TrEMBL record, chain A:
It comes from the Eukaryota. This is Centromere protein M. It holds the Pfam family CENP-M. It comes from Phaethon lepturus (White-tailed tropicbird). PANTHER family: CENTROMERE PROTEIN M.
From TrEMBL, chain B:
Keywords: Centromere, Chromosome, Nucleus. Belongs to the CENP-L/IML3 family. Signal peptide: none annotated. InterPro entries: CENP-L. One of its GO terms (cellular component) is chromosome, centromeric region. This is Centromere protein L. It comes from the Eukaryota. It is found in: Chromosome, Centromere; Nucleus. It comes from Phaethon lepturus. Pfam families: CENP-L.
Length: 131, 285
């Protein structure tokens, strides 16, 4: 399900399936997208931040179009204890690889992978990013 | 001495980053001028003519601008100028300056400290003149000193730093308006939005944001820009933060994201060069 901001409209609450993973997309070329994500984060239940949230930063291919300070994004990942992924949507190979990564994460968050919980996977991702 | 650098003001300079020059010496500037002159003549002979019509002699001068440096560790700026002199014209007639390029390094310790003995660090190169001459001069320097030139682009993030920094500068005469130009992405026809702000209002806003004089943080730049964006949104319902900042013009200088700069105040020339040197160094590394 794709939404431009949170909270999701309440009218469709009863029709909505369980949400297993929220990927917040930040376009590095748009300060507005960062502000939007920051505002939307306030509407997310705290339980999601146990491994069911990630930040996806797009537009990283062209450094000279950067309108967002990278430190702000790292800080967001730290404050909300969630991994930060990078991708360039315009390149098909990277787009496909990123989609596969997200799908894998979703499988874990939905509990389809025995022995791996969302929380343990999230911790693993964050620890490897720190290295 | 502002008089000697006055000719650098109010001209449009295209920016390049340059990797350190191998075995460059500021004691041999006359020799370099001679060699470069011969190289240009040879290129013209090859048929890569830059001027159509009468063969005109191109005079090359390479000189030093000792005032343009940050600290004593910096290499003083080197200026290369190409002038045209017609062989038919009388001896004392004015030569016409057709191309200028200067290498410069202001507060480039980050780079010069990490570089072996035989290398000279002049990471910033500024050009005014025809692209064809730039290519010839550039290729001579690349061949002679084993360096590499690359166009220096300025990101919207860096442009917003410049907007904040330059707004805070005290300017003697009546300052010109501060202008920000934004390019709107993903439209069938390109659209640019120009946002002009009265310089006193901009300075007043910056003064309320900046906590420590002489120091600027990313947070302060963000708050400053956000105020300008919300003001615009209140009036026009357009989110400038979703567009790309492409040009910043203030009384101190104006900068374009394609790597084009114009210096407008001699007292802040070194300050702006320091910022540009930093950008050039990060592009090299």
């Amino acid at each position: 399900h794709l939404a431009t901001s949170l909270p999701l409209p309440s009218e469709r609450d009863h029709l909505r399936p369980r949400i297993d993973l929220i990927a917040f997309m930040i376009d590095i070329k748009s300060k507005y997208s960062l502000k939007n994500v920051e505002a939307s984060l306030a509407h997310v239940d705290a339980n999601f931040f146990l491994g069911k949230v990630c930040f996806l930063v797009t537009g990283v291919g062209r450094v000279n179009y950067c309108s967002v300070d990278m430190n702000a994004i790292w800080k967001l990942g730290e404050v909300y204890c969630s991994p930060v992924l990078f991708c360039e949507l315009e390149l098909e190979g990277i787009r496909v690889a990123t989609a596969q990564r997200l799908l894998r994460m979703l499988q874990i968050c939905a509990g389809h992978i025995p022995g791996v919980s969302a929380l343990s996977f999230g911790t693993l991702m964050r620890n490897s990013a720190d290295d | 001495d502002p008089q000697r650098t006055a000719f650098l003001l109010r001209k449009q300079w295209t920016l390049y980053s340059v990797t350190p020059l191998y075995r460059f010496s500021d004691a041999h500037l006359r020799d370099y001028a001679r060699l470069l002159s011969a190289f240009i003549a040879a290129e013209k002979q090859k048929g890569l003519a830059v001027e159509v019509g009468v063969e005109l002699g191109t005079k090359v001068t390479v000189s030093c601008l000792p005032d343009l440096k940050g600290s004593d560790q910096d290499q003083a700026a080197i200026l290369v100028q190409l002038s045209l002199r017609s062989p038919a014209a009388p001896k004392n007639s004015e030569e016409k300056l057709i191309w200028s390029g200067w290498f410069c390094c202001v507060a480039g310790d980050d780079l010069s400290q990490n570089v072996p003995e035989d290398f000279t660090c002049l990471p910033l190169f500024l050009v005014n003149g025809a692209e064809s001459y730039t290519a010839i001069v550039g290729s001579w320097f690349q061949k002679t000193f084993d360096c590499y030139f690359r166009r220096l682009a300025i990101s919207p993030l860096n442009l917003s730093w410049m907007a904040a920094m330059w707004t805070g500068c005290k300017v003697d005469k009546t300052a010109s308006a501060m202008e920000l130009v934004f390019s709107v992405p993903r439209l069938p026809q390109p659209l640019d939005i120009s946002y002009a702000i009265h310089p006193e209002d901009a300075k007043a806003l910056w003064d309320t944001v900046q906590k420590t004089p002489g120091e600027i943080t990313q947070e302060e730049v963000d708050v400053f820009m956000d105020c300008l964006y919300s003001h615009f949104h209140r009036h026009f319902k357009i989110h400038l933060s979703a567009t790309k900042l492409v040009k910043v013009s203030t009384a101190v200088a104006s900068a374009h994201c394609d790597g084009i700069i114009k210096f407008l105040q001699s007292q802040y020339l070194t300050g702006v060069l320091m910022l540009l040197t930093e950008l050039a160094i990060s592009q090299i590394q």
